[in-house]
Amino acid sequence: MPDTKHPESKNVDAAAYSAQGTPRDRVALPADTFDGTVNLPVMHQAVKAFLANQRQGNASTKTRGEVIGGNQKPWKQKGTGRARQGSIRAPNWVGGGTVFGPRPRKYTEIVPKQVRALARKSAFNARAREGALFVIDAFEYDAPKTSRLQQLLARLELAHRKVLILTDGVKPNVFLSGRNLPLAHVMPFSDVSTYNILWSDVVLVESGALGEAMAPMKEKSLSKVKVVRYVARDTDAAKHAADDDAPKSKAKKKSAVKAKAATKKAPAKKAAAKAKPAAKAAAKKSPAKKSAPKKKGK
Known about the structure:
By secondary structure, this protein is of the alpha/beta class. Among the domains are: about 5-60 and about 105-210, Ribosomal Protein L4, Chain: A (3-Layer(aba) Sandwich); about 230-275. It is built from six helices and six strands. It has a six-stranded mixed sheet with strand order 2-1-3-6-4-5. Helix 3 crosses helix 4 (about 170-180). It is flat. The termini are far apart. The mean pLDDT is about 85.
């Protein structure tokens, strides 16, 4: 079994920023949580249980006893030449009952508390080892403002990545500021699960949630950063270019086919026009021949 613990990666630190995205000195992460432990099997178990617990289990089918109808025997037992049948709601009939179909049930999986804590700890260590965990000094929002949080993500170059923002306790203004951002998820640090951490590409943690609150920087409002809604990749650009060229090439082919057809029809029309006067002249010159009178018998 591979070694999933890395005790050599202790004393982990992370990049720190202000609430507006200004870089600050790196911060040492608490050793009790960020000790380098990454247990993959436990993380898999926790994520699998989390997803299973989201299922409602409402799928249901009817057996032959629950389908309406079918109380009468469709035809007599003998003498018809057909196979014997007792009900039109038997499973072999269209519209009949289902055998061993799904029934409403619970998909709940219970994971021990210590295993969940180990999985959560492993997920944090995995993000810290990747350098995908940033510390924010303090989220002090007097009112919800989506553009303010969006500017923070843009200055950190995270506007087009999945970001998990963990606050120190419940902060409704921060939550409402990120609710309309499709790739940002705001929640308290104490409520985060292993699935939420692994879902995100980058984790932003408020310093107070880690145990040592940083004094917020006094800084003036910074100039706004232009946020591009969508950055097209090379493959996507090539696909779009091919899609744009396809209608043009089709139109060119159609015009070429029409031109060829027109050139073919032109000489045929001219020949037909010449043939019509000649036929009329021939009809005028040659009068109709009269039939010879019949000879009377002697």
